[in-house]
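Example 3.2
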Amino acid sequence: MPSAESIRSENQVLPIFPLQRVVFPDSVLRLQIFEQRYLDMIARQLSNEQGFATCLIKKGNETGIPATPFDYGTYVEIVDFDQREDGILLITCLGKQRVRINSTSILPDKLISANISFLENLPQEPITEHQNELIDLLMDLGKHPQVEILEAPERWQHMDFIVERLTEFLPVSEAQKQAVLEESRLDTRIAMLYQMLAWLK
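Structure, written as tokens:
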């Protein structure tokens, strides 16, 4: 698969998987694939050693008529897959890099294809002492059975990772999470996170 460095230097045409959730870099994404268009897409991307782009749905649904996605999403790579006896494909993906959709087209099988630009992920800034409360909060969230966090202990000392994981799992709207994904400044993201935490109190 292409390295992050080579990905950043070029645009690519990739299939879009529209979702009802926001996926960030380092997100763990598990999907059950049963529509033929997506089964074919996953098989094709695995054969080409490529991932695909996920985007939050702006209008429409995950199945049936192609949905309208937001313009920003995340490139994910498939790290595991398993085919059940009933034909449903279970895949595990890992978020790798933010992307921006430049243009889209609907293929004959109703799959969304897009020309995308790869965006820089946020810099890995160390967390400061007065922000340790955020680590404690994430640890508490991580005890929930539906919360799955990438096993990367060293990343827990990086503010970008903490902000994205908290945003991913806090009980706020997907539109609020999308706004964080689209923001490219870490200090602004931190302010947005603290604002969301204030709303939840």
